[in-house]
Amino acid sequence: MYEQLDQLSGLIGRELHKHGVGSESAVSLEFTKLRWAVVAMLAVAKASSTFFFLDCNAPPKCNNECLRHATVDSTLASNWTIDSEV
Protein backbone atom coordinates (compact mmCIF):
# COMPACT_ATOMS: atom_id res chain seq x y z
CA MET A 1 0.00 0.00 0.00
CA TYR A 2 2.74 2.49 0.95
CA GLU A 3 4.78 1.50 -2.08
CA GLN A 4 1.83 2.28 -4.36
CA LEU A 5 1.31 5.62 -2.57
CA ASP A 6 4.99 6.44 -3.07
CA GLN A 7 4.86 5.48 -6.77
CA LEU A 8 1.69 7.45 -7.55
CA SER A 9 2.76 10.56 -5.66
CA GLY A 10 6.21 10.37 -7.25
CA LEU A 11 4.74 10.11 -10.74
CA ILE A 12 2.46 13.10 -10.20
CA GLY A 13 5.24 15.03 -8.47
CA ARG A 14 7.55 14.55 -11.45
CA GLU A 15 4.80 15.69 -13.83
CA LEU A 16 4.21 18.80 -11.73
CA HIS A 17 7.93 19.52 -11.75
CA LYS A 18 8.05 19.10 -15.56
CA HIS A 19 5.31 21.72 -15.80
CA GLY A 20 7.28 24.21 -13.74
CA VAL A 21 5.96 23.56 -10.24
CA GLY A 22 8.73 23.98 -7.68
CA SER A 23 9.83 25.75 -4.53
CA GLU A 24 8.46 29.12 -5.66
CA SER A 25 5.07 27.66 -6.63
CA ALA A 26 1.74 27.03 -4.95
CA VAL A 27 -0.77 24.37 -5.97
CA SER A 28 -4.43 24.39 -5.05
CA LEU A 29 -6.07 21.03 -4.34
CA GLU A 30 -9.75 20.16 -4.69
CA PHE A 31 -10.67 16.54 -4.06
CA THR A 32 -13.81 14.75 -3.02
CA LYS A 33 -11.99 11.62 -1.84
CA LEU A 34 -9.42 11.72 0.96
CA ARG A 35 -7.37 8.94 -0.65
CA TRP A 36 -6.54 11.08 -3.70
CA ALA A 37 -6.03 14.18 -1.58
CA VAL A 38 -3.24 12.37 0.30
CA VAL A 39 -1.60 11.32 -2.97
CA ALA A 40 -1.83 14.91 -4.24
CA MET A 41 -0.37 16.39 -1.03
CA LEU A 42 2.63 14.06 -1.23
CA ALA A 43 3.04 14.76 -4.96
CA VAL A 44 3.16 18.51 -4.36
CA ALA A 45 5.67 18.00 -1.56
CA LYS A 46 7.82 15.85 -3.86
CA ALA A 47 7.76 18.72 -6.37
CA SER A 48 9.15 20.95 -3.56
CA SER A 49 6.04 23.12 -3.62
CA THR A 50 3.30 24.21 -1.23
CA PHE A 51 -0.43 23.53 -1.42
CA PHE A 52 -3.76 24.64 -0.05
CA PHE A 53 -7.19 23.08 -0.24
CA LEU A 54 -10.26 24.45 -1.92
CA ASP A 55 -13.64 23.42 -0.54
CA CYS A 56 -15.41 20.99 -2.89
CA ASN A 57 -18.74 21.89 -1.32
CA ALA A 58 -18.33 25.63 -1.61
CA PRO A 59 -19.91 27.50 -4.51
CA PRO A 60 -17.47 27.94 -7.40
CA LYS A 61 -17.65 31.71 -6.84
CA CYS A 62 -16.16 31.25 -3.35
CA ASN A 63 -13.26 29.11 -4.59
CA ASN A 64 -12.64 31.51 -7.46
CA GLU A 65 -12.36 34.33 -4.95
CA CYS A 66 -9.78 32.33 -2.97
CA LEU A 67 -7.81 31.68 -6.14
CA ARG A 68 -7.96 35.34 -7.08
CA HIS A 69 -6.26 36.31 -3.81
CA ALA A 70 -3.66 33.53 -3.89
CA THR A 71 -0.72 33.13 -6.18
CA VAL A 72 -1.50 29.70 -7.62
CA ASP A 73 0.52 28.13 -10.40
CA SER A 74 -1.45 24.90 -10.75
CA THR A 75 -4.54 23.11 -9.50
CA LEU A 76 -5.00 19.40 -8.93
CA ALA A 77 -8.62 18.28 -8.74
CA SER A 78 -10.69 15.14 -8.97
CA ASN A 79 -12.63 14.51 -12.18
CA TRP A 80 -15.89 14.81 -10.27
CA THR A 81 -14.90 18.29 -9.10
CA ILE A 82 -14.00 19.43 -12.58
CA ASP A 83 -17.14 17.98 -14.16
CA SER A 84 -19.41 19.47 -11.51
CA GLU A 85 -18.20 23.01 -12.17
CA VAL A 86 -18.38 22.97 -15.96
What does this structure look like?
By secondary structure, this protein is of the alpha/beta class. It has a 3-stranded parallel beta sheet with strand order 2-1-3. It has helices at residues 2-18, 34-46, 60-69, 79-85, and strands spanning 26-30, 50-53, 74-77. The protein has one domain (2-85): Rossmann fold (3-Layer(aba) Sandwich). α1 (2-18) crosses α2 (34-46). 55% of the residues lie in helices and 15% in strands. β1 (26-30), α2 and β2 form a beta-alpha-beta unit. The radius of gyration is 13 Å and the shape is flat. The protein contains 4 helices and 3 strands. Mean pLDDT is 86; it is low at 82-86.
Compact overview of the structure:
The protein is built from 4 helices and 3 strands, in the order H-E-H-E-H-E-H.
